[in-house]
């Protein structure tokens, strides 16, 4: 069981060659893009690429949360690329407190789905939901885990963050680490998009952190924060509406 779970210690396993080959597929005008090389090493920089700012804005704005996937497997090399790009997110003190658990086998997905269902059922029963609604929700949540070709659990590890004697700074430090992990989560979704794959962020692992840790035999310090379902999109939904910028930003 533990062997079936691929725990990737990214500092050891990242491939530093980042494929950009599918980026051109999702830009408005791929003809604008001259692919100078097929890989982007850590030494190279964006000046070697000829994407325009508009291309990149367009790329960022065309990411969608994808919830339905084709059954096709995702090659390991693509998953490695996605994770490697996620690790280029900024992090507080560059401590990189993100950890990843990549789940591709049906056995592990089912084991996890069953374990999480127990917590979910208990919470919904406490909420007073009727049994048939509880069962319907549990069925849906199990299907989401078992039907995605890849499930990536994103964890927070506080062990290399600073510690403080007072609670206020301790909480601030924890917040910084959580923000850093969230940045890696977004970067993971964007890398997924760059590969022509789809992904969605699922936050409900926060309701079952301990259960997940036990089910996957994770180290004590790995705190589940989010799950990402990844695969080739079956349906690409329309963009969801965004609030007008005028309601969100001030320029005093
Ligand atoms: C922190 C966070 C938690 C989310 N949790 C869920 C979730 O549990 N289930 C889900 O279907 N989508 C979840 N999403 C995806 C959002 O619903 C989605 O990003 C939002 O509706 C905007 O749609 P878009 O991503 O297609 O632009 C989450 C997104 C974030 C950032």
Number of helices: 7
Task: Tell me the span between the first and last alpha carbons.
Answer: 57 Å
Order of strands, main sheet, comes to 1-4-5-7-6
- Derived structural class: alpha+beta
Return the CATH architecture.
3-Layer(aba) Sandwich
Radius of gyration: 20 Å
From the spread of the alpha carbons, the general shape counts as globular
Beta-strand portion reads: 5-15%
In terms of per-residue confidence, which ranges show pLDDT below 50 for 5 or more consecutive residues? 1-44
Let me know the CATH homologous superfamily.
NADH Oxidase
Q: Helix proportion of residues, in percent?
A: 25-40%
Fold-level CATH name: NADH Oxidase
Order of helices and strands: EHEEHHEHHEHEHE
Taking the sheet with the most strands, its summary is: 5 strands, antiparallel
Any idea how many domains?
1
Distinct small molecules: flavin mononucleotide
Query: What is the level 1 CATH name?
Result: Alpha Beta
SSE layout:
Layout lengths: L5 E3 L1 H4 L4 E2 L19 E2 L12 H9 L14 H11 L11 E6 L2 H21 L4 H17 L2 E8 L9 H28 L3 E5 L6 H7 L6 E10 L21
Antiparallel strand pairs: 1-4, 2-3, 4-5, 5-7, 6-7
The structure holds flavin mononucleotide.
């Amino acid at each position: 069981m533990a062997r079936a779970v691929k725990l990737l210690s990214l500092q050891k396993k990242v491939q530093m060659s980042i494929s950009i080959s599918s980026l051109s597929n999702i830009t408005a005008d791929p003809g604008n893009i001259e692919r100078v090389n097929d890989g982007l090493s850590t030494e190279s920089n964006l000046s070697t690429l000829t994407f325009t700012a508009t291309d990149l804005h367009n790329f960022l704005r065309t990411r969608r949360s994808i919830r339905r996937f084709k059954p096709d497997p995702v090659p390991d090399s693509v998953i490695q690329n996605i994770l490697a790009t996620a690790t280029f997110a900024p992090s507080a003190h560059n401590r990189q407190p993100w950890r990843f658990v990549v789940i591709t086998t049906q056995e592990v997905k089912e084991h996890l789905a069953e374990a999480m269902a127990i917590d979910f059922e208990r919470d919904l029963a406490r909420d007073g939901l009727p049994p048939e609604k509880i069962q319907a929700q549990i069925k849906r949540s199990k299907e989401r885990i078992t039907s995605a070709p890849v499930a990536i659990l994103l964890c927070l590890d506080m062990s290399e963050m600073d510690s403080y004697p007072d609670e206020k700074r301790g909480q601030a430090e924890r917040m910084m680490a959580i923000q850093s992990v969230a940045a890696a989560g977004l970067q993971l979704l964007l890398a997924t998009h760059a590969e022509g794959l789809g992904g969605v962020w699922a936050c409900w692992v926060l309701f079952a952190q301990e259960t997940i840790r036990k089910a996957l035999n994770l180290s004590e310090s790995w705190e589940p924060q989010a799950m990402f379902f990844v695969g080739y999109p079956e349906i690409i939904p329309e963009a969801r509406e965004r609030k007008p910028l005028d309601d969100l930003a001030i320029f005093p």
